[in-house]
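Aggregate trends can hide what the representation actually does to any particular protein. This step matters because it turns folding into a mapping between discrete strings. For completeness, the protein is quoted in full, as a sequence line and a line of structure tokens:
=====
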Amino acid sequence: MEEVFYNLSKLLPYIIVFPFTAILLFALHLVFRRGVNNNNISLYGLFLSLSNKDVVSFSLIYIQFIIIIETMFLDGFSYYSLLLIFTPILFYGIINLDIISMFLNIFATIFMVVLCFFEQVFLSYLVNINYVWYVVVLFVALCMFIVAFDIFVLAKNINNVTKKRINKAKRLAVSGR
């Protein structure tokens, strides 16, 4: 029971970060929709005409990105940390009703968790057994690959959300609404 409360206490930062991220993105959405007339700024265009579902999707994508980066610095994995890692992707897939994307994201997340496990193995080898230069090189390369792959998954998910929004706008324009 004590482990349950300890792991629930580890959830507190994410319980706080998710609403603030959603509120921040929603505020940016409102500000950019009303006051920006310059088409040359692509960041502003990202937040134009976002629906509430898109804001929540962006928040979940960003939370997943932060959780994977933080997983690189965990000492060990528990069932609660694995649940925490997979929850945003499951909610993202359910909210967007995109089962194929959800399974691809789950596969990518499993791959990143396995890479984080290997990163912890390399780190424990360096700390406890022997500090060898080629293990350090492997450790640094693995960390860089995890970050690069996580950024790729983040960009792919943001692209999926924006493509759905653009395709929806095109369908509405063709139908005459």
